[in-house]
Give the backbone structure.
Amino acid sequence: MPRKRTLIPSLLEWTDRPLPVPPPVLPVIAERGGTQLRRPLPVAIIDTREQNPLSFRRFRRWFARIEERGLPLGDYSVAGMEHSCIVERKDLADLIQSFTTNRAIFIHRLRRMSELPHGLLVVTASLGEIKSEYPYRAANPNRITQSLLAVLAGLCLPFICTETHELAEEIVASYLYQTFLYDLLDRNGHGRYLADGDL
């Protein structure tokens, strides 16, 4: 005898994706000889032209302050590193448009970023979304995916995909914080590592 299907599944049958854990108090801590180094906090910069900016409010303890001003390149940076540390962020619709309609302009921007010591492309969509059919768009998911891989292989410019806008906020905030910290350690003769025997 067939089982009757209920309209609302049992809570035990729900298969939600696991939720990310809360962010740490600080992304990383620098130590030498087991003692935490005193260091200034970075100043995060959000470009004023960013259409749907990431918010770093949850990460205010990670930064001395957060400024909104025009950047020469990209969407996010750190004060004093505007010409060496750039993060470009794209949501899926913008990524598709950038690799199709605005391809020449976008590739030129990515080439400039690849010449910097610290460049990162952050896509606020999962790889699965990028590789899936796009409703109401004629763009080919394979072309967009292969373009991303060409950026990685051809330009040696890394990219990260985040499933949500909120996760992108944490990833970008942490990247800016850590890039600033490694640069600060290096400039002050401490070397590019966080603790003895570390990276």
The chain is about 30% helix and 15% strand. The chain has one domain: 40-187.
